[in-house]
Amino acid sequence: MPRFNLTAIAQTNATGYPAPHAAAVRGRWVRRLGPALGLADFGVSHVTLKPGAASSHRHWHEDEDEFIVMLAGQAVLMEEGCRTLMRAGDMAAFPKGEPNGHQLLNESEADCEFLAFGRVPLGDAHYPDIDLHWSAGCYHHKDGSRY
Amino acid sequence: MPRFNLTAIAQTNATGYPAPHAAAVRGRWVRRLGPALGLADFGVSHVTLKPGAASSHRHWHEDEDEFIVMLAGQAVLMEEGCRTLMRAGDMAAFPKGEPNGHQLLNESEADCEFLAFGRVPLGDAHYPDIDLHWSAGCYHHKDGSRY
User: What is the mean pLDDT of residues A128-136?
Assistant: First the structure.
């Protein structure tokens, strides 16, 4: 049956961020729905942010469109010089190549949930606030050295 | 600002279905968010179904993954021999190539809203309940003749 039981899909708070930057997403619990449900054309993840957690560090992709829809609770969408409260039903789109780093922060005292859609990025991702850059499949310092 | 105002995006109830089959989706009002927001990697549409309207005729795609999430109201997910009530927050996935035709029907007395994700299908779409088949970019009767 295509309607699925979300809670039957495993959650993980694993991150590829190198150690100095991993703490911010420790309270980010992700269910990767695409592989679990047999979808390959696009990525779709269900994300729960515990109070205080971030969806990511503020970033933008050179070659990956992203789309989010809030399902429950609330989070603050952080962009370049801008904070926007996101509540259930609110949506946001992040076209590839727009140099406006974004992240969601759960500044509330309750969990929030959202869906995130995208595709596997092959190009670079930029992190304007921290010493991090994604390129050629791994994380680098901004001077180009590897973590 | 990536958070967008949904109501500023135009709705249409246009359909490519040939006349005998168009009536079922007359109360389906679609906002194509991808083009409006600059997303190209995947398709995303916001759909409002008026009472009595269907999202489509029951169909399945040979080469397009689909994913839906209900945002408001309720609809019945019709599949091969199965009816499932979908309420806000419920999600369903339809991997390409699974011959289980699906559609949403709004059998309630209020509007319902959902998001639908996919990609442009290049291959065939099958309609098990009616004399309709999508192939080579246009609709055919099941005997192969064009509408």
Answer: 96
Which residues numbered 67-96 in A keep a CB inside 8 Å of some CB on B? 67, 69, 71-72, 77, 79, 82, 84, 86, 89-96
What pLDDT is attached to residue B1? 53
The token pair at B5 is 């105002």
> What is the CATH T-level fold of the domain B18-140, as seen in this structure?
Jelly Rolls (2.60.120)
Q: What CA–CA distance (Å, rounded) separates A15 from A28?
A: 9
Q: Could you tell me the pTM of the whole model?
A: 0.96
Residue B112, token pair as written in the block? 């319902």
Which chain B residue shows the shortest CA-CA distance from A81? Answer: B1
Q: Are A95 and B4 within 8 A, CB to CB?
A: no
Candidates A49, A56, A36, A51; CA nearest to A113 is A49
Average the pLDDT over A58-73 and give the result.
97
Question: DSSP letters along A33-77, please?
Answer: HHHHHT--SSEEEEEEE-TT-BSSSSBEESS--EEEEEEESEEEE
pLDDT, mean of residues B15-35: 96
Comparing CB atoms, the residue among A44, A64, A90 nearest residue B41 is A64
Range A37-59 average pLDDT: 97
